[in-house]
Design brief:
This protein is of the alpha+beta class. Helices cover 32% and strands 25% of the residues.
């Protein structure tokens, strides 16, 4: 193969220099330039009573960014002390828009902490102050908390079982307890006890229980 001539080598060198200049301009100027500053922050998905404060925190953090340099970690830190926030879905709309959808925890059960009965999510997150709609099962077992999460093994497994329960059956759960020989036990209103063992594969166990309960041959069991 013949080597490129001097003229072609000059054009290739100029092209490389131009690419480096453009890359440096993007990295050190345009990426954080006011030309692409976030001016319009849209926050959706909030139902908590702290919705306005969560929205304000996200909006304030978003306005420090550009659409070419969105800092997810900073947005997550802005709402880290709101346990109701499970996650964020973030998308930028060039040149000035930022859209954030808040994914909330949903109450799965109630636990007694001190003198209060508070809702918890299926992963054991304590949702203090979050409004509860409808009837929730009560976890009637050893419940301890560290910070904003349940810390006792029995409480965490019970919360996992409650969180995985199908909605039609969750409203029929009277209590969730823990027995040494059986592990997590769910008592249904006018129904049988469901013995889960631990909280692992809770969704699969609920599917199995639902199929048995729906089988006409299991009536009266």
């Amino acid at each position: 193969l013949r080597l490129p001539g001097p003229r072609l080598r000059l054009w290739l060198a100029l092209l490389v220099v131009l690419c480096l200049v453009l890359a440096a301009g993007y990295r050190f100027w345009l990426r954080d330039s006011s030309f692409v500053a976030v001016e319009d922050v849209k926050v959706s998905g909030l139902t908590t009573k702290d919705a306005e404060r969560v929205r304000a925190a996200l909006t304030s953090a978003g306005h420090t960014m550009t659409t070419l340099n969105v800092d997810r970690e900073l947005l997550e830190q802005a709402v880290a002390h709101y346990p109701v926030v499970r996650g964020l879905e973030i998308s930028s709309d060039f040149p000035h828009g930022l859209t954030i959808r808040v994914i909330e925890h949903h109450p799965a059960a109630l636990v007694e902490l001190g003198d209060d009965q508070v809702p918890v999510a299926g992963d054991g997150t304590i949702l203090r102050g979050m409004p509860v709609e409808g009837r929730l099962p009560v976890i009637d077992t050893d419940v301890r908390a560290r910070g904003e999460r349940l810390s006792s093994s029995a409480g965490l497994h019970a919360a996992r079982v409650a969180g995985a329960a199908p909605a039609p059956l969750r409203s029929r759960i009277e209590a969730i307890t823990a027995r040494k020989e059986d592990g997590i036990v769910v008592q249904l209103h006018e129904g049988p006890e469901l013995i889960f063992g631990d909280g692992r594969r809770a969704e699969a166990k609920w599917i199995a229980a639902t199929r048995v309960l729906a089988d006409p041959e299991a009536e009266g069991a």
